[in-house]
Amino acid sequence: MCPDNDTITVAIDLMAKKDLPEIMAIEQESFLSPWSEGMFADELKVRHSQCLVARLSSDKKSMIGGYLIFWIVADEAHLHNLAVKKEFRRQGLAQGFMNVMKEISRQAGVKTQTLEVRESNEEAIKLYRKCGFVVKGRRPLYYTDTQEDALIMWADV
Length: 157
Hints:
The structure is a single chain. The protein is α+β, with helices and mostly antiparallel strands. The protein has a domain at 9-110: Gcn5-related N-acetyltransferase (GNAT) (Aminopeptidase, 3-Layer(aba) Sandwich). It contains four helices and seven strands; from the N terminus they run βααβββαβαββ. It has a seven-stranded mixed beta sheet with strand order 1-2-3-4-5-7-6. Strand 4 (76-84), helix 3 and strand 5 (112-118) form a beta-alpha-beta unit. The longest helix is centred in the middle third of the chain and has 15 residues, at 93-107. The radius of gyration is 16 Å and the shape is globular. The two termini are 28 Å apart.
């Protein structure tokens, strides 16, 4: 997971307000219509919101490699936001987040998980399918910035 062959430790931790500058940098490099810092700050206050970060650390430095936000309401979990810093993509971090979401959901008695994804986001769709999600519907013109449809995906816990 490290470009200079340095050993890196990954720890999944609760997101904190002090993390927002690093999270915003990842958010802005990851999405066409990024969330605002205020949206993240508000999410930290929502009782049923699970806000997690991957803290990457080595002898040389420490940084946030990605984040996951999902809600647990009744017996459903809904993925709201997942992003990984560009330099750490395709190394298992996003799949690790999905596994953590499933385990937290299972412990909370959740029966199903759901999410929306841009129909053009092939990498994310491939990841979600690998994690057991299947397309169950479509939200036409869900993404107003590009007039793109969202695929609605579901998975059993």
